[in-house]
Automatic annotation (TrEMBL):
It comes from the Bacteria. Belongs to the LysR transcriptional regulatory family. This is LysR family transcriptional regulator. Keywords: DNA-binding, Transcription, Transcription regulation. Gene3D superfamilies: Winged helix-like DNA-binding domain superfamily/Winged helix DNA-binding domain. The keyword Transcription regulation applies. It comes from Streptomyces actinomycinicus. InterPro entries: LysR_HTH_N (IPR000847), WH-like_DNA-bd_sf (IPR036388), WH_DNA-bd_sf (IPR036390). GO terms for molecular function: DNA-binding transcription factor activity; transcription cis-regulatory region binding. The keyword Plastid does not apply.
Amino acid sequence: MHERELRAFVSIAETGRMDHAAKCLGYSQPAVSYQIKCLEQALGTKLFVRDSTGARLTREGRMILPSARAMLSLFESIKSVAA
């Protein structure tokens, strides 16, 4: 699990669309899709249901979201201490 994967996951969860998340993060849409694929493989579960209207969290995705947000907060805390 990497910070970029978690950022992509949280951004998609918040926007509901991979293309919007990619724009917010400054990544290409294929890069965001790849980050989610890697995260899903690492966790061994699907995090989103994708359709023509966007991406919705699965039950597992909803369960993981608070922890992902907490991890990103910890990353930010570490960066601020190190700066």
